[in-house]
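Re: the request from the purification team.
They wanted to know what the chain is likely to look like in 3D before they choose a buffer screen. I agreed to run a prediction and write the result into the notebook, where they can find it.
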Amino acid sequence: MTCSCSPKKINRDIEEKINKHPCYSEGAHQHYARIHLPVASACNIQCNYCNRKYDCSNESRPGVTSDKLKPIEAVKKVLFVGGKIPQLSVVGIAGPGDALANPKQTFETFRLLKEKSPDLKFCLSTNGLKLPQYIDEIVKYNIDHVTVTVNTVDESGYIGSKIYSWVHWEHKKRRGIEGAKILLEQQLKGIKMLTDRGVLVKVNSVLIPGINDKDLPNVAKKLKELNVFLHNIMPLLSKPEYGTKFGLDGIKSATNKEIMVARESCGIDVKLMKHCRQCRADAVGLLGQDNAKEFTKDRYINMSFDELEKIYNRQNREKKHKLIEEWRRHLAKANQRVKLENAKREDLSSTGETKLVAVTTRGEGLINMHFGNAKEFFIYEAGDKAIKFLMCRKVKNAYCDGMQKCDNNPIEEIQNTLKDCDILLTQKIGECPMRELKDIDIICDEEFAAEPIESSVAKAIYKHFTFEIKEAI
């Protein structure tokens, strides 16, 4: 399978910036790890979808953390983790409040990191309210990736007034339309200042059904004007137990279908991020594999910097990264040119017919996870011309915990998550779940175990469905 059309080329300087960043590069996220440092506790706005929680180990979403760290503690953690997980490539400050509402802690952390671990990429996340004020500091500390949350560009402030309870501006809480207008003005001003200085900007937008869903295409158009690099449309996570205003008010979480529709309408204007996991403020490891519980403060806090720098071992880390890059080159060759980003259906299929393919993986670009262990599934749309990655879909419980019998396994959530899919590609699957997925017309295939994902998706489509084949895979 080859494709006559190709996505817009990324210039070499930007490609080098994003190559090892698991959030900014879809290709990097199965190979490189990130760490979020929870040094920024306070926030200067109150979003109706947010409830910052401390010591919360059972929720995986932004704003929650099990630790709060001082800058020195945070840097010690980075050195310790970077030695134990040598594929660590990015360190970010994403809360549990707002990085720029805590400027002293945020920039002191980056100052120390610049000294102790200059081989890492630095990034921060912010709501953008204080962004114009801290542009010089962002550039000074080589923070060349900044994520800004922009949920609406409605200049009237009406949509924003539904999303934000208050905005703290000039020593006063501004509510309703007034607060929303102030926030938007500062966001747009700050984003332009960043892109003018060569900083890569990713914008997160939370899809809130019935509130901002119709405005997201306008957000995408505005981001294009501002030269934003990446747009991440995330689903609202809204359950009463989360304690958010939306959750308590009964506003439902966004569905996979709603996210797919929103991305389809926005992807024509700006490059989309589709592999986001909506990580915690203390996340550690590969996207989708949070290892934070393995790196509690007691493991590193009493170590000296000399000890930690030996553990960090930049020479070993460099060797690991070279091996990863060599493996990625092999993968690219194996996958050939079968994938398109932000493609329309006619780019994927000469007949207009496409299929959805779910994949289980633990990383490295391979189909290398047993179905029973999967808590997330990669979803691809595929036709006879090309494929494209759509999203990652999570489930709360994996099918197998190693103890249960078949008739007690949690298949209903998985069936609901994959109900629109046609094929499941997995390393291994038992007879029981295979039969249960067949009940909802999903074909399960183990033939491509340990094979590269993208080429396997393309081959599976031809194996199981009839297309008018123009070029061989």
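For the purification team: Residues 90 and 105 are 18 Å apart (CA to CA).
Please add any questions underneath this entry.
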